Amino acid sequence: MSNSNDIDRLIEIMARLPGLGPRSARRAVLTMIRKRALLLGPLAETMQTVARTARECLTCGNIGTSETCAICRDERRATGELCVVEDVSDLWAMERAGVFKGRYHVIGGTLSALDGIGPEELSLPRLKDRIEAEGITEVILALNATVEGLTTAHYIADMLEDSVRLSSLAQGVPIGGELDYLDEGTIGAALRARKPL
Amino acid sequence: MSNSNDIDRLIEIMARLPGLGPRSARRAVLTMIRKRALLLGPLAETMQTVARTARECLTCGNIGTSETCAICRDERRATGELCVVEDVSDLWAMERAGVFKGRYHVIGGTLSALDGIGPEELSLPRLKDRIEAEGITEVILALNATVEGLTTAHYIADMLEDSVRLSSLAQGVPIGGELDYLDEGTIGAALRARKPL
Ligand SMILES: [Zn+2]
Ligand SMILES: [Zn+2]
């Protein structure tokens, strides 16, 4: 395509990223090459570092650069509160909102009979263990407002029974909406107006 | 945001690429980290290579990995024909169409009084030099079908007078359309139906 194997290969790999196709990958690569000092060099270097250091937090499932992520290590975080999210991107969205001061638990998806995703495929047994081991008294469900998210929330409510105060994000999360698309204000409002399950 | 400086920096640089914003950059980085062996590692490595080797062809302006690009080096290419394009991405679009067997001249934009882009800012004097030095007998203008593209085409026609056979892509290029968006078939049809200026 560009008649250079390395450039073609770079375009081909970039095109596999979510949100990019062949055309936007070509544009991105041309821009990177033109702004080599500003984009291509720093990107290559940072990717190499991240490829070497990125890892999943063994406690909460967040992605960071150590065995225990910065949030789990942060002693100013309220230890009795746990916010349950589907995905790391949702955890980051909560953090951008800056309204939750406890810790997180990334379950890694939603229950789905169709896709064969049961409690064991998500980290739900581990959630139960953590609640006991860490003396958690309040769990906030920040799952996406989708059918699968609601099903999963009900399952968690049944699993935890009355062992903790349980609530879920409420006001402000539109039906069918995904957390990662919401602005900080909406997430903040939803957290403050959370309703007990 | 992710509470890791390197990951945040990677997201921040990715978000500067055309077609990506902060949100798609976050998604892309999470995907890269999850598919480290398939995406992050190979990307970092290929970027490093491209950052070291990519350069503009001194003859035509194409981006490749040598002083003279593979197209300019290719002796099977018709030496008397030159296709003039605005941008490297347009050259690549022509090559994907696979219908032009000559060589290229990337002028690097279009004339624009408003933006202070005159013939010297584009490689138009150099186009004239090449035509003499390389004994070019046919020039095909494959500029975008925009007002600026048409203005530039007229300027080139005046500059070259009757020194070469001059034509421009015609049928199939929609008014206001940009070359890089067209499918191969449309580009092929436009080349075959090119009309003399
Ligand atoms: Zn953690
Ligand atoms: Zn060349």
From TrEMBL, chains A, B:
One of its GO terms (biological process) is DNA repair. It comes from Salinihabitans flavidus. Belongs to the RecR family. InterPro entries: DNA_Rcmb_RecR, Rcmb_RecR, Rcmb_RecR_Znf, TOPRIM_dom, TOPRIM_RecR. A zinc finger (C4-type) spans 57-72. It comes from the Bacteria. GO terms for molecular function: DNA binding; zinc ion binding. This is Recombination protein RecR. Pfam families: RecR_C (PF21175), RecR_HhH (PF21176), RecR_ZnF (PF02132), Toprim_4 (PF13662). May play a role in DNA repair. It seems to be involved in an RecBC-independent recombinational process of DNA repair. It may act with RecF and RecO. Keywords: DNA damage, DNA recombination, DNA repair, Metal-binding, Zinc, Zinc-finger. SMART domains: TOPRIM. Residues 80-174 form the Toprim domain. HAMAP family: RecR (MF_00017).
